[in-house]
Amino acid sequence: MKTVSSRQNPVVARYRAAARGESAGVVLLDGAHLVVEALDAGLRLREAAITPAAAARHEVEPILARLTRASTDVVLVAASVMDALSPVKSPSGIVALADRPATCSRRMYDRASPLVLIAVDVQDPGNVGAIVRVSEAAGADGVIAGGACADPFGWKSIRGSMGSALRLPLAVQRDAGAAIAEARQHGCRIMAAVPRDGRSMFQLDYAGPVAILIGGEGTGVPACLAAGADERVTVPMQPPVESLNAAVTAALIVYEVFRQRSAESVSE
User: Fold this and answer.
1) Contact 179, 142 (CB under 8 A)
2) Number of domains the chain is built from
3) What is the pTM of this model?
4) Most exposed: 46, 109, 110, 171, by fewest CB within 10 Å?
């Protein structure tokens, strides 16, 4: 295994560029968990770096074996170099660069009654990652990052998704209106999450194809998009609370969908 002890090595520049989102077709993975998730998802890992301390851990041995079998170029790096490679404050000791997963919104509509989340202008990558994670957990068919959303494949988003971004169908559509139009073409009812003056999330029927709009921090779903939705859905809140975090709102609504659809399947 090659050893890198200098922060001036070209490998550092590659990881830093990936962390800034400047490497087309590449995602940065930080931590053993995400490296394993990428391997399990069948992604090609281009290269990996690991510190001696991390390599000595018992649980990392099988990961290194899998990387070797996958013909991934693995280098041993000094702790100071890992500090430069990893974008997190406390590096885990293993990072990797992998091929960016393919994006395709068509896969999200394969089922008879798809559930798709369209995040609009959610600029915090941690929130985007959390929305992806809870969407997979609740059985949604995919997430579309619309408008000025953070990149769902940025390192912060992937980290926030705990690997769900490597499995769940995702798409990026800078024109949120176009994403909504596509959902309508697949027969989806459009439901816009709004902080007030919508119907309670517990009063709506989520049967059939559904696309849920989740707005960004502060501004929420743009008024023009909310006005054109088939339903405006509100999470009931006790005063003086007036709004919830975008990821929390998404979680509450998709789990109400999950609850209703699970109850329907049991009754059948």
Assistant:
1) no
2) 2
3) 0.93
4) 110
Which one of 99, 116, 143 terminates a domain? Answer: 99
Say whether both 236 and 260 belong to one domain: yes
196 DSSP 8-state letter: S
User: By the 8 A CB rule, do 215 and 178 touch?
Assistant: no
> Are 112 and 75 in the same domain?
no
**Number of neighbouring beta carbons within 10 Å of residue 176:** 24
* 225: containing domain: 105-267
Cβ–Cβ < 8 Å for 249, 218: no
Where is the domain boundary, 65, 99, 133?
A: 99
Q: Which residues pair with 94 in a beta bridge?
A: 50
Give the Cα-Cα-Cα angle 201, 207, 212 (nearest 5 degrees).
50
Q: Within this chain, do residues 235 and 150 fall inside the same structural domain, yes or no?
A: yes
What tens-digit pLDDT sequence spans the chain (268 residues)? 898 999 999 999 999 999 999 999 999 999 999 999 999 999 999 999 999 999 999 999 999 999 999 999 999 999 999 999 999 988 889 999 999 999 888 899 999 999 999 999 999 999 999 999 999 999 999 999 999 999 999 999 999 999 999 999 999 999 999 999 999 999 999 999 999 999 999 999 999 999 999 999 888 999 999 999 999 999 999 999 988 999 999 999 999 999 999 987 655 5
